[in-house]
Amino acid sequence: MSEMTAQPKKKWASLQQYADAFGVDHSTAQRWFHAGLIPGARQVAPRRAIRVPAELVTDSASVA
Fold first, then answer.
1. What is the pLDDT of residue 58?
2. Does 8 score more than 80 pLDDT?
3. Which of 9, 17, 44, 52 is 20 to 30 Å from 62 by CA-CA measure?
4. SS3 state of residue 57
5. 57 within 8 A of 17, measured Cβ to Cβ
6. What are phi and psi of 13, to 5 degrees?
7. What is the Cα–Cα distance from 13 to 5, expressed in whole angstroms?
8. Where do the structural domains in the chain lie, given as residue ranges?
9. Would strands 12-14 and 42-43 be described as parallel, antiparallel, or unpaired?
10. SS3 51
11. What is the top-level taxon of the source organism (predicted)?
């Protein structure tokens, strides 16, 4: 008996994916991040990638 294993949902999206989902430029999304306007977004260290909760990207895609 083989069971289908569900793929774990992706928890994080890149800032570029977030920008694409909202139809804005990457630099605009960066400004929003630094202004604290993206809820749940994280940057683990300076000069490292900014990660956004994946549900923000998928929710905006269904709205757009």
1. 82
2. no
3. 44
4. helix
5. yes
6. -125, 160
7. 22
8. 12-63
9. unpaired
10. strand
11. Bacteria
